[in-house]
Design a protein that fits this description.
This protein is mainly beta. The protein has strands spanning 6-9, 30-31, 38-56, 63-70, 75-79, 87-90, 101-113, 123-134. It has a single domain (6-134), classed as Jelly Rolls (Sandwich), CATH 2.60.120.
Length: 137
């Protein structure tokens, strides 16, 4: 099934735009153009999203350590390990059951592991979403 998913970022380093978060390749990555808190918004349309998988970017850039995952009405904080593999987290439900989040899904990077190259912002190689249903009217 083809899903029309978009990713909008608070900033992006040249050549490392938000589209690289959802290109199904961990060889490419989104990178923020500056250090500090960053946010990515995923428009998931009418799909009910239950969990999100985040694969940190290369060590040359900062990697997410603490993230807030949420919707317009609620969010949860999670800690990521500093390893190059996908780590899965639950998306807060809108109406009380897993998979009830739809519309926009936000990921805010609150803390990072340091980059080996000074001044490099946070990087995420890939994001995957697990959908449990679709409410397509």
């Amino acid at each position: 099934m083809n899903v029309d998913l978009t990713a909008t970022t608070s900033s992006a380093e040249s050549g490392h735009g938000g589209d690289l978060l959802i290109d199904s390749s961990t060889r490419s990555f989104w990178a923020a153009e500056k250090e500090g808190e960053q946010e990515v918004t995923f428009s998931v349309g009418s799909y009910g999203v239950s969990s999100i998988g985040i694969t940190p970017g290369p060590k040359t850039h900062a990697r997410p350590k603490k993230v807030e995952v949420g919707t317009s009405s609620s969010s949860r904080s999670y800690l990521l390990e500093d390893k190059a593999e996908t780590q899965w987290f639950m998306v807060p439900p809108l109406v009380g059951y897993t998979g009830s989040s739809w519309g926009d899904l936000m990921v805010k990077v609150v803390e990072t592991y340091p980059a080996t190259t000074e001044g490099k912002g946070v990087a995420i190689a890939e994001v995957k979403l697990r959908a449990t249903n679709v409410e397509d009217f």
